[in-house]
Amino acid sequence: MIKQNLNELESKSIYIIREAKKKFKNVAALWSMGKDSTTMLALARKAFLGKVPFPVIHIDNGIDFPETYAFREELTKKWNLDLIVAKSEIKPELSGFSCCGANKTEALKKLMSEYNFDALIVSIRRDEHGIRAKERVFSPRDQDFKWDYKNQPEEIWDNYTSKLDKKGHIRIHPLLDWNEIDIWTYIKKEKIPINPLYLSRNGYRYRSLGCTHCTVPIKSDAKNINDIIKELETTDTEERAGREQDKEKEYVMQKLRSLGYM
Amino acid sequence: MVSFLEDKNKTDLENEAKILWEDPSEENWNKFREILKRSKAKYYRVKYEKSLGTTEDLRKSYAEIFDSKYNIIAKVPIFKKVGSKIEGATINLEGLLNANKPE
């Protein structure tokens, strides 16, 4: 895994977050308590003098890891976050990708409609999955959350679209250009708090975090962030190999994402 | 005296776990959380029946609770009843550590 210039990545992400706040009336951010979305919040604090000036949404299906809930409470207090918890139903007949996708999307749709958010900051990265690699930094969604991946806006010289579908919203992706090792290197540099599940215990740790149903640990002796970075420098396993939803075929994922599923 | 209290906390945990299986209400989960704090519980592992194919599988899913030596001390459901619906309730295991290693 190749490390990129952190200062450049940080500057660009801060610019993107500030642009989002400037261009849209009602911005919110998704937070899963994972390393990426927590890094995004840390960048937002840098962008806005130590504050996160928009609501932070946790879509909660009720079966997250207890450590995730504890981390949520701790960081919400420490960083004085305006936290909104959107409860999503668990529909067992849709287990696996669909459970996370369909149910969380429904919960998010209700919330977006209730609060009238017009922009949503989401912490996906291009290197995570082929489908995510197709995303734009400012990515429009229509009122049904559909993504027209064949007809995306141009993004030339950091000019990002602010054109909204009447009742749609824009997804803002400030971490698109970051890769996994950049995130960990930044976390180490900025001393960003992390969910303890990322660290090894009993020879296992979680490299990517979802809920208790769809995430499995990996074999690892990485007990601290330095160890994680060393591990990533030599691994050839994909980051999301332990996530059930990513085992769907790529074209299926793309189709579902274009229809509005997360 | 200490041994008596430890045994009492363990019994309370087991009893409350049984109550939760019969009635996983918000009220019973709150009582369970209080007992869990006083107990020797340290780790948890969540187990799902098959792949959550039906509501029944969901109801059968549970969390094993272990002491510091990985002895099982209780098994609890991981959902609560909210009216006629079921909601996930793993938040009630806050304070415990994931057992991490797969079986």
Describe what this molecule looks like in 3D.
The complex is a heterodimer of chains A (262) and B (103). With 262 residues, chain A is of the alpha/beta class. Chain A has two domains: 6-178 and 249-258, Rossmann fold (3-Layer(aba) Sandwich), CATH 3.40.50.620; 194-247, no CATH class. Chain A has seven helices and eight strands. In chain A, the strands form two sheets. A six-stranded mixed sheet of chain A has the order 3-2-1-4-6-5. In chain A, strands 7-8 form a two-stranded antiparallel ribbon. In chain A, strand 2 (56-60), helix 3 (66-78) and strand 3 form a beta-alpha-beta unit. In chain A, helix 1 crosses helix 2. Chain A is globular, with a radius of gyration of 17 Å. With 103 residues, chain B is an alpha+beta fold. Chain B has one domain. Helices cover 39% and strands 25% of the residues of chain B. Chain B has three helices and six strands, in the order H-H-E-H-E-E-E-E-E. Chain B has a four-stranded mixed sheet with strand order 3-2-1-6. Chain B has a two-stranded antiparallel ribbon with strand order 4-5. In chain B, helix 1 runs antiparallel to helix 2. Chain B is globular and about 40 Å long. The mean pLDDT of chain B is 86. Classes of the chains: A alpha/beta (262), B alpha+beta (103). The A-B interface holds A 60-67, 69-70, 87, 89-90, 92-93, 95-96, 99, 197, 201-205, 212-213, 216-217 and B 44, 46, 48, 51-55, 57-58, 78-79, 85-102.
